[in-house]
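Box S1 | Example of a co-folding query
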Amino acid sequence: MLETRHSVCALDCPDACGLLVQVEDGRGTKLRGNPEHPVTRGFLCAKVTKYLEREYSPGRLLYPMKRAGAKGEGKFTRIAWDEALDTIAARLKRVAQEWGPEAVLPYSYAGSMGLLNANGMDRRFFHRIGASRLDRTICASAGTAGLMKTQGFRYGVAPEDFVHSRLIIAWGANVLATNVHLWPFIVEARRAGAKFIVIDPHRNKTAAAADRHLFINPGSDKALALGLLHVIFRDGLEDPDYLSKYASGADELRGLVRDYTPSRVAAWTGIDAETIETLAREYALTRPSVIRLNYGVQRNPNGGTAVQAIAMLPVVTGAWRELGGGLQLSTSQAFALDRPALEMPELQQRSPLGREARLVNMSQLGAALTELASPPVKAMVVYCSNPAAVAPDQTRVHAGMAREDLFTVVLEQFQNDTADFADILLPSTTFLEHTDLYTAYGHYFLQLARPALPSPGETKSNFEVFQLLARRMGLEDECLYETEDEMIRTLLASGHSHLKGITLERLEAEHHVRLNIPSPYLPFAEGGFGGPEGKAQLGTEGLAYVPPPESRLGDENREYPLELISPKAHDSMNSTFGYQPALDAETGVAWLNAVDAATRGIASGDAVRLFNGRGEVFARAAVDGKTAPGVVAVPAVRWPKRSAGRAGLNTLITDRLTDLGGGATFYSCLIQVERCAN
Ligand SMILES: Nc1nc2c(c(=O)[nH]1)N[C@H]1C(S)=C(S)[C@@H](COP(=O)(O)OP(=O)(O)OC[C@H]3O[C@@H](n4cnc5c(=O)[nH]c(N)nc54)[C@H](O)[C@@H]3O)O[C@H]1N2
Ligand SMILES: Nc1nc2c(c(=O)[nH]1)N[C@H]1C(S)=C(S)[C@@H](COP(=O)(O)OP(=O)(O)OC[C@H]3O[C@@H](n4cnc5c(=O)[nH]c(N)nc54)[C@H](O)[C@@H]3O)O[C@H]1N2
Ligand code: SF4
Ligand SMILES: [Mo]
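Box S1 (continued) | Returned holo structure for molybdenum atom
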């Protein structure tokens, strides 16, 4: 029998595609983008088009297992769910008794974007037992904090409205790789005459397809934004009416940027003064103009305030007034679901701790596992993330995870590096196999997915596992045993106007439902920002530019002369597809500038060693002008266990945090590169 079922792509991607799953006799045979979804528009990215290969891969974990070898060795024997759950429940209880409940640390991120499975029953469970809370900073917290400072809200121009723009700037945004469903709207705008400019240290596919690509020094975007503002104010290109009605702090900002002359900014950014002048004038005078800002700009110590400063540009020019004008970093806050009611932080009061638990920053996991005291972390439960591959300061992360006295539970679909460190390894369903509700961070459609395919072997959803664990631990709170549908209804019941008329029944029937926002949507055309009196906040606090300490112009580490960035691989999703040999090829390449290669006697295809004081990793050189001199790019993230010495790229990365939001600084890394034997 052949039928088509609906689903939603749960990967950590702004596009949150609506999927159609072709099912023949219970087996998925084809995935397509839903042609009726206004942003998906019938196509999927290459990686998810092939997702059934992952779904049915022989590498899928199908049964619970317990460790049978040394920590990290990856040797396991199969056990029954009963034994697995009993072991975990008993150990978590013992840890809590001996060390206090905060000795338990959950570790998760957005391996699934599903609210129930990645931000729902898990949160209730950990709050109820009094576990440490995890500060989920690894991706977007700096940009979130910066955007909130200026706009006060985390939403912006809808992707569909990019067609109306006449100047589109992709700023630290690799649209063709990480946000492909925006691309058709950009193409349409360009057909109508729009110019497309990319600001990025890496000539990726998006930059190569642009009308103009500006190579910028990593971590210098704040300086560029201040330089653009300098020219805009100097030449009277601001929108005084918009500023007086809808912003505060414009005069202070005008004062600050007086010093950010194009020639000074040129020295920091590597973009010459004339180009900065031209860009500023073009940006201010072309209407409508939109900035697609993405998280690439904020993975450095200036990341939060860089986003804060860039978000000031459309306020100063009044670009928000027009349809297709403004900025988009994320659309997520528009969903306005009742997240507190989903996560129930108040359960902490009922835990043995009886108060709010401590917050542990996930971007410093290595330190948390090796240094944190009173109490130390004695048990860790990992789901929807692969910290052994993706977290900074990998050597210390691995050292921490290898601790014999640390009890580690991993809920996974594949046996990645993190799974190798597990004491108990639990097999997880994929998004095609469980119910969940999905927001998006790149559009305004809320979506529901029901299981489209049967779950193989003994796999279970996170939702179910946390309920089973709660039961084993003798917890009686009813909220731990709610059904998926009850929790979805709770989420929808926030009372916010954006959710008016959106019910579970409607989601069930329509699969994707546009938020109840005006059409067309001009979120800040008449102010409506989150600051006092609905104003955007300009001002100057924290905005002065200083190069990142770990950069060529910074004051640290002069012995390592090259700057390493590790942007997203085109055909992957962080480490999710890392079991595929094809990915080793993509993530095993170091893009070098010809000048840097020549002085080191390196040619394309040579084996190279990348190193700094934190360690070394190996790659193949590719020399072809994709980076400016002084910058090296290696696509992220390869599985460490598929790399020499089990050292993944994050071995080289510091655990220094961003200026705002406590985020990771993956793209602020000094290294040396040398040719080596194969
Ligand atoms: N194909 C694919 N898609 C993905 C992912 C993936 O792994 N692969 N990951 C998903 C995730 S988790 C996220 S957070 C999003 C991220 O989506 P993006 O933010 O678009 O991705 P990044 O590669 O982190 O960064 C974007 C660009 O910023 C550039 N960049 C690096 N440093 C700087 C800088 O200092 N200034 C400027 N201007 N640019 C800089 C990089 O070279 C890169 O081209 O993508 C999601 N989508
Ligand atoms: N060097 C470098 N490092 C980086 C980055 C970079 O650009 N450069 N990017 C950073 C960023 S932006 C991010 S967001 C992080 C991402 O890092 P992670 O959050 O670790 O993301 P993934 O590597 O995609 O791993 C997600 C895991 O979740 C699992 N998973 C998926 N769905 C489910 C589910 O329903 N249940 C369970 N139990 N598991 C599930 C998948 O099998 C996969 O192994 O990496 C960061 N690390
Ligand atoms: S990864 Fe992104 S583009 Fe690809 S199918 Fe999923 S949501 Fe769509
Ligand atoms: Mo991310």
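Residues 12, 109-112, 117, 138-139, 383-386, 390, 411-414, 416, 428, 462, 566, 568, 573-576, 636-637, 649-650, 653, 666 surround MGD (ligand 2) (CB under 6 Å). The radius of gyration is 25 Å.
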